[in-house]
Design a protein that fits this description.
The protein has 7 helices and no strands. By secondary structure, it is mainly alpha-helical.
């Protein structure tokens, strides 16, 4: 079932915490522990362990990495996002110091969409835009 890969060594080198736990689960299974024991020792559900084993069997080590998730679509359309980028770029050219609150107000006034301030910064990161010059 599980290959002769050294899952402990792979887990030590893995930077992503979720992938590390998946690799540790495989290491414990390779050592002969039951899926119930693995789930209990890693504080995860047995169904999670079963899913990880299924993914490993289907995809190999690549199946242990965290896959990107689509998440909720952005409330701003692509044209609104482009308009926001233009606004920020022009403000930076004019040496205006923008803050997240300024971007939040702009979005609310021009698009009638209310964002939490913390989401403004996530949106800017997603758009690859900074408020600094």
């Amino acid at each position: 079932m599980l290959s002769s890969e050294n899952f402990h060594q792979l887990a030590r080198r893995e930077k992503n915490g979720q992938a590390r736990i998946r690799l540790l689960a495989l290491a414990h299974l390779q050592e002969g522990k039951s899926r119930d024991e693995v789930a209990e020792s890693l504080k995860v559900s047995v169904s999670s362990v079963n899913n990880w084993v299924r993914r490993y069997c289907a995809e190999g080590i690549d199946g242990m990495t965290t896959k990107p998730r689509s998440g909720r679509p952005c409330a701003l359309s692509e044209s609104q996002q482009a308009q926001l980028i233009i606004f920020i770029t022009e403000q930076k050219k004019q040496a205006v110091k923008l803050k997240g609150r300024d971007v939040q107000d702009y979005i609310q006034q021009h698009f009638a969409i209310i964002f939490e301030l913390s989401h403004i910064y996530r949106l800017l990161k997603q758009l690859k835009v900074t408020l600094r010059r």
